[in-house]
Amino acid sequence: MTSEVDQVEAVGDGSDGPLGRQGPSAPRRAKPIRRLDRVIIRFAGDSGDGMQLTGDRFTSETASFGNDLSTLPNFPAEIRAPAGTLPGVSSFQLHFADHDILTPGDAPNVLVAMNPAALKANIADLPRGAEIIVNTDEFTKRALSKVGYALDPLSDGSLEAYHLHKVPLTTLTLEALKESGLARKDAERAKNMFALGLLSWMYHRPTHGTEGFLRQKFAKRPEIAEANISAFRAGWNFGETTEDFAVSYEIPPARLPAGRYRNISGNLALSYGLIAASRRSGLPLFLGSYPITPASDILHELSKHKNFGVRTFQAEDEIAGVGAALGAAFGGALGVTTTSGPGVALKSETIGLAVSLELPLLVVDIQRGGPSTGLPTKTEQADLLQAMFGRNGEAPVPIVAPATPAECFAAALEAARIAVTYRTPVLLLSDGYLANGSEPWLIPEVDELPEIKPGFATGPNTPDGSFWPYLRDPQTLARPWAVPGTPGLEHRIGGIEKQDGTGNISYDPANHDLMVRTRQAKVDGVAVPPLEVDDPDKLARVLVLGWGSTYGPITAAVRRLRADGAHIAQAHLRHLNPFPANLGAVLGSYERVIVPEMNLGQLALLLRAKYLVDAQSYNQVRGLPFKAQQLADVLWAAIGTLEGNDGDE
Amino acid sequence: MSDQHAFPSLSLVPKAQAAQSAKDFKTDQEVRWCPGCGDYAILAAVQAFMPELGIRRENTVFVSGIGCSSRFPYYMNTYGMHSIHGRAPAIATGLAASRADLSVWVVTGDGDALSIGGNHLIHALRRNVNLKILLFNNRIYGLTKGQYSPTSELGKITKSTPMGSLDAPFNPLSLAIGAEATFVARTIDSDRKHLQSVLRAAAEHRGTALVEIYQNCNIFNDGAFEVLKDATTAQRALIRLEHGRPIRFGPDLGEGVFRDALTGELHTAPVTPDNEDRVLVHDAHAPNPVTAFGLSRLADNDTLHHTPIGVLRSVERPVYDTLMAEQLATAVEQRGEGDLATLLAGADTWTVE
Ligand code: SF4
């Protein structure tokens, strides 16, 4: 595996630098070509500038070229924040490489800034020597003063440390479209495609996909499609002809494991995972959901697939969303509700009911910054304790958490397996970063996907011929799932405590104690795979343990450390409840355990409580993922203190 | 199917093989309402009515929320769920929308449906999901021991309102009509025959049916509807609606309901040979809800005089669950049964050797 150690450096000001290996020139190119092993690009502009679309297109081009990639969209919660302001800046970062990568990258090598606000909001993230492409047309006095630039940064020398490309993107776009007959305003809007064309030239991206995409997207307005394509081509040609862009770069395809790939975002993977779970269980999928950022895309996606028998119900509120899903589950469907943290809070009582009814139910929480409305479009993983404990009474719920965008597919299947096998609600914790981020996905073979067996009750389960809805499977402790329409199994269930076995209402103290313990034992007994530890030389004394979307930056940090000769062990939890059976032993075999989390230490709290280990938390709640270097520094320090202690002894 | 179903809303529900009786719908559970509670009469009436539907017992589901009335499913030998406060319409919506072969009933009360669950009730009504909602209205909170409810009369003295309640009550039927309900009816716990006739009409209705049942809570609000039950007072207080018939009531049907020509408002007046032909003829199927709304507001909220019972409104509108099923069928028709492998691969793939 290629180390990421050398990847913190910028591309440099035209020199090869540590990344630039000279490669063979492509024949039709007039200009020199440099070969790189990876690049990080950030597109930034106004919310209305179409930066997300530009980033998405560049990502698709990159995926179809065969690079490994990882993306980080970052946009304001407002649909159209005031134009030209710092809060209105929307950006899309893409990291792509000729090898396996894990994160959207710490620092961009290239920044495309469509206006002064985009420059100002992003400049601090750029390393010296990075390339900046600015749209000079937007650097007017008024626009500059709007974001507090007293002097024009393009001419005051403040950008000397960077390789600055001053491109009048708007003018060039208008020039390219002057024959199009479009109004100036419409023509101007194609400037993002001009920028995309230019970047596509710089990095040798295939272009037919984008042209096809534009034709399809604007099928109803062919003149707009053609204008966008013209701007896109003009951007490409501009790169090829202008002297400002002296070189272009080649990043060969990555050597990923053999197979067929596609690019996929977390929310899309999760939607597909739900459909796959429906197919592999034979249970019709019912989604009850209320729109909420950043989960709504799952509702949108599933709504498109009614030919898979998928029913999507946009409810009047979060409570009705989960209620309808639970009602459908009672009727034998794979009931799912999708939401974010505030929605989980509203659904708590119904999740508790599902715990008591012991019916399968999937609750998908795409976590975002909290508390309350918090940061709707930013990522965080601070709902772990809400997922774990956020209900009245003892109401244990299994928790599954994917580590990467593509892993959301398998996580949905796994959550469905647990829910159906154990007749329990399951919480699936994704987050804003996984939801919107994307990466290549090795498309699985359908018949190799795990099968899920609903095992509906079909007849009486007692010797006297009656049906007891709470007579459990001795292995899994799951109760029978008898759906309406099954003759002879008519039964009533509810949220009041039930007598063990018969399910009749019972207020008996000893029975309640037994039922509480049994429900807990059922969840504790959910079969989850053992935790795998990556400790290649078995010399590590420090373990870094993460969960959820921190996987990318943690793994990148670990690679850097190892490349520099450090010994460090890494493990990542995909099951947060129950924990893998070997977790205690794993924790006990390292002298120090570091737990990086995008919260104030929620997993660390659970680990400390359950295993009495001195797990050390490292936190950040900035609405953005960790940077690999930041974690590498923390881990270095942890290893260093241990060694320092040794010295003292 | 050989023969037509007597109840159009149940056309997709499998029919019972053998005749059933009220006994078949009773469970072995001890009924735990207070002795004398109006819920007993409603339960007996429903159990006796169910065989008439002629559908399989196992395809019948009762879903309830929380409150005295919500214990109802435990006593019905069908499938049942006693859920959480106010949420029964939402839960039942998911069930009905995914299972066209079920007859789904919601049992709720004035607190459950109109207070904590008000949102779910109005949205179920506007969607027109194939649900039959029985709203037991006793104008009080029973299970929590006697606080005023959203249907209690203004100024009501209860444990939580020792100086009288301050909030104006809901009129459940007005609310339902305002929420685009396609079927709205009212009946009384003690009038078994009428109750069953309303249940029958509700079961025939395609879509959401809201049946308000005046129910006596003899512990915390005893006699709330006595004026409608006592033979002498009921004659003047109660207006029995029948579709297609002039709305007349009182001794010798000497009173009638009229529409004011100028304002369109409804009012009651003695019927005379002069005005007899202007007595309002009840049209439950009128597309415009304005008359049904007027009828729902005819009663005096305090004295309950001029309380119409029967079906106020019953109109046809596409049913949510049917529409949902049709969309699924259309999607399959247009694009074929979904193929998982094709879906997962998508349009843009590349191969690594
Ligand atoms: S409190 Fe009232 S409504 Fe409840 S069971 Fe007793 S009498 Fe019936």
Question: Explain this structure to me?
Answer:
The complex is a heterodimer of chains A (649) and B (353). By secondary structure, chain A is an alpha/beta fold. Chain A contains 20 helices and 24 strands. In chain A, the strands form five sheets. In chain A, strands 12-11-13-14-16-15-22 form a seven-stranded mixed β-sheet, sandwiched between helices. A six-stranded mixed β-sheet of chain A has the order 4-5-3-6-7-8, sandwiched between helices. In chain A, helix 1 (51-65) packs parallel to helix 6 and helix 9 packs across helix 10 (296-303). With 353 residues, chain B is of the alpha/beta class. Chain B has a domain at 22-224 and 318-332: Rossmann fold. In chain B, 29% of the residues lie in helices and 17% in strands. In chain B, the strands form two sheets. In chain B, strands 2-1-3-4-6-5-11-7 form an eight-stranded mixed β-sheet, with helices on both faces. In chain B, strands 8-9-10 form a three-stranded antiparallel β-sheet. In chain B, helix 3 (110-116) packs across helix 4 (118-127) and helix 5 runs antiparallel to helix 9. Chain B starts with 37 loop residues before the first helix and ends with a strand. The mean pLDDT of chain B is 95. The interface between A and B is large, with 74 and 61 residues. Residues 33-34, 37, 39, 68, 138, 142, 217-220 of chain B line the site of iron/sulfur cluster (SF4).
Radius of gyration of chain A: 27 Å
State the strand order across the main sheet of chain B.
2-1-3-4-6-5-11-7
Gross CATH architecture of the domain at 22-224 and 318-332 in chain B: 3-Layer(aba) Sandwich
- N-to-C SSE series of chain B? HEEHEHHEHEHEHHEEEEHEHHE
CATH C-level name of the domain at 22-224 and 318-332 in chain B? Alpha Beta
Shape of chain A: globular
Tell me the CATH architecture of the largest domain in chain A.
3-Layer(aba) Sandwich
Using a beta-carbon cutoff below 8 angstroms, give the protein chain pair with the largest interface and the number of residues from each chain. A-B, 74 and 61 residues
What is the overall pLDDT average of chain A? 93
End-to-end distance of chain B, in Å? Answer: 57 Å
- Give the strand order of the largest sheet of chain A, numbering strands 1, 2, ... along the chain: 12-11-13-14-16-15-22
Counted up, domains of chain A total: 3
CATH homology superfamily name of the domain at 22-224 and 318-332 in chain B = Thiamin diphosphate (ThDP)-binding fold, Pyr/PP domains
Q: What would the CATH topology of the largest domain in chain A be?
A: Pyruvate-ferredoxin Oxidoreductase, domain 3
What general form of chain B does the structure show?
globular
Tell me the major beta sheet of chain B.
8 strands, mixed
